[in-house]
Amino acid sequence: MKLRRLHLAFGLLLFVAFLVTGQFMRRDFPDKSLIDQEFRLLMRSRHIYILLVSLSHILLGIYFVGVRRWIQYAGSALLFAGALSVLYAFVFETYTVHGYSQFSRNGLYLSLYGTVFHVIGGFRLQSGTNE
């Protein structure tokens, strides 16, 4: 139950971060026609990644059940790490390197693996026994 609440709180916090990063883009880059379009696309995609991971955590916070809890705990750890990596990628790639880094890709992979762990951990065993 505690992990479920943690996912929900973290997801809502990330959703607020999504709204804040949208405001950063609006205020820091008001004349979008002057920005290199490749950089603008990179910045917007990182912004959308933050939305993706926030919604994943919100969903887990609403519905966190399963038979194999240890697999879900590992999946949750991966999802938290992926979300933090994507959030960091937005700041680092937008304001420091003005380009691509490994943080966004790693964040998406971590989110993918975390989701797969949750899918595996959420399946019930055919014999009906609980682990």
Structure description:
By secondary structure, this protein is an all-alpha fold. It has one domain. The chain has 4 helices and no strands. Helix 1 packs parallel to helix 3 and helix 3 packs antiparallel against helix 4.
Write the layout of secondary structure elements.
Layout: H1 2-28, H2 37-62, H3 69-96, H4 102-122
Identify the notable features of this structure and list them briefly.
mainly alpha, about 130 residues
Low-pLDDT ranges:
none
Structure annotation, total helices: 4
Strand content: under 5%
> Biggest sheet: strands, sense, closure?
none
User: From the helix content, strand content and strand pairing, which structural class follows?
Assistant: mainly alpha
The H-and-E topology, N to C, reads as HHHH
Whole-number mean pLDDT: 84
| Proportion of helical residues | over 70%
- DSSP summary, beta strand count: 0
Whole-angstrom Rg: 17 Å
- Compute the number of structural domains: 1
End-to-end separation: 17 Å
What is the general shape? elongated
